[in-house]
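Much of the work behind modern protein science is quiet bookkeeping, done one molecule at a time. The protein below has been through that process, and both of its lines are reproduced in full.
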Amino acid sequence: MSDELRRRLIDAARAMNDSGLNQGTSGNLSVRWDEGMLITPSGMDYAGLVPEGIVYVDAAGESSGSRKPSSEWRFHLDIYRQCTGAEAIVHAHPAWCTTLASLHQPIPAFHYMVALAGGNDIRCAEYATFGTQALSENVLAALRDRKACLMANHGMVCFDRDPERALALAIEVEHLARIYAQALQLGEPVLLSDEEMELMQDKFRAYGANAQAR
């Protein structure tokens, strides 16, 4: 089972870079496994990554394997500990999400698809140095009742129930960030009401693959 998960994680990592969502070795992905998680290694090109290079990190934060885990392993592990529904995580530095994050700008309810992230906005986590517990705590606060957030002066992170869905959500959040940034150039976007966004969340929970999984 772990070999299959490792291969899926590698496929998602390569697809992330191929999509333009991320560049080089800057992002990282993980999947919940056993009492901990499997996570991409630190500073390695995904094109050359093999299943043995994926790192296991246990519930206590101890890693095993031939390589070091991503420097962001702390917030990955904390998300699994505290966020319901988190089975796979994608962290990346996509251009439009990072543009908004550099302004500490959340994505409000300018479009109904924002509800895919679990609420009526996509928050921006406060800045902290990468790889620190402070960053993990800031990310957890921004992810409260959400599946995605921006990270100030950094990038974005999201989770879902498998690597493929987590990557699809990350791509959608980047698309929303681009459209919102473009809309801001023309004026102040009209926001949908909280009631409408709650309705959208209900509809997404009953939509397609989500309905079949219940």
Observations:
- The chain has a mean pLDDT of 94.
- DSSP finds seven helices and eight strands in the chain.
- The two ends are 23 Å apart (CA to CA).
